[in-house]
Amino acid sequence: MQPTIKLIPNRKFIGFSSKMSFATHNPFILWNKFMPRLKEIKNRIGNELYSSEVYPPNFFDAYNPNALFQKWAAVEVSNFNEIPEGIKTLSVQEGLYAIFIYKGTNEGAASFYNQIFWDWLPSSGYDLDARPHFAVMGSNYKKDDPNSEEEIWIPIKSR
Q: 123 vs 59, 119, 126, CA distance in Å?
């Protein structure tokens, strides 16, 4: 498991968000609400979809499946000048990300994330940074297909 390390500039996203926990995790509600509104977004960058999590400080200090975080269904935009009514904004500050390629269905994702957080991260020379996490669903993403691929972006900073 060897990620690509990339410094990204400030980025802008718009979409829908909701508070949830791992115990109540149901991103499909967000996507079902967001996807019919996609055609309203005029300043979209690329065709990728972004499933994002914004975790509160110290979220990863002790695992609690009932701890709340903010889940997003979003797309990247060039600016916030034209935001369709009811859609929210998410600004992401410049910083380093470790980018992993996940191949498989949703059933295997938890194990993949465990490898990132419990195997790769402790020996990587990096710590988690307090910025949004992303799953980037591009042209190789195919829902419920074992050959589906998505990029997992983990915010990091040097130790």
A: 20, 7, 8
Neighbours of 92 (CB within 10 A): 21
Q: 76 by DSSP, 3-state: which?
A: strand
Total residues belonging to the chain: 159
For tokens 């790769």, name the residue.
120
Say if CB 128 and CB 57 are below 8 A apart.
no
- The enclosing H or E element of 118 equals none
Paired sense of beta strands 133-137 and 4-8, if any: unpaired
Torsion region of 129: left, alpha or beta (phi above 0 gives left; psi -120 to 50 gives alpha): beta
Task: Kindly tell me the burial class for residue 17, based on how many C-beta atoms sit within 10 Å of its own C-beta (0-12, 13-18, 19 or more).
Answer: buried
Average pLDDT over residues 15-28: 90
With a threshold of 0.70, does the pTM exceed it? yes
Which three-class secondary structure state does DSSP give residue 102? strand
Residue-level pLDDT at 155: 97
Closest CA to 50 of 130, 135, 143: 135
The two counts, helices (H) then strands (E), for the chain are 2, 9
Task: Report in angstroms the alpha-carbon separations of 80 from 83, 85, 91.
Answer: 6, 12, 10
- Contact in structure between 14 and 87 (CB atoms under 8 Å): yes
